[in-house]
Amino acid sequence: MRTTQQMSITLPNEMAAQVKARVASGEYASESEVIREGLRALMARDNAVEKWLREEVVPEWQAVQRGEASRLSSNDVRDRLNAAYGKDTGDE
């Protein structure tokens, strides 16, 4: 049974040039390997975001809903960031 599927894709010229450059440099053996690696990176990023949401954001939101955690307004967050990292907000 076949474990791969052939596809035809269209890329913008800049992306196609990047794929070809990676193969030409010897970093990858084929254009397919470059695309597979890119998809692996995308899946890893998606999994990391999903894990962060599931393990950190949702529990914190649930704690806020139960009244077990404090809430900050956007102004409070901005003030804390300014205090921690300087007062230059770039709004000027």
Characteristic terms for this protein:
single chain, 92 residues, mainly alpha, 3 helices, 0% strand, elongated
Characterize this entry briefly.
With 92 residues, the chain is mainly alpha-helical.
Question: Would you give an account of this structure?
Answer:
This protein has one domain (14-85). The protein has three helices and no strands. With 92 residues, the chain is an all-alpha fold. The protein has helices at 13-24, 31-65, 74-85.
Secondary structure class reads mainly alpha
The percent range for strand residues is under 5%
**Apparent shape:** elongated
Low-confidence stretches: none
Produce the secondary structure layout.
Layout: H1 13-24, H2 31-65, H3 74-85
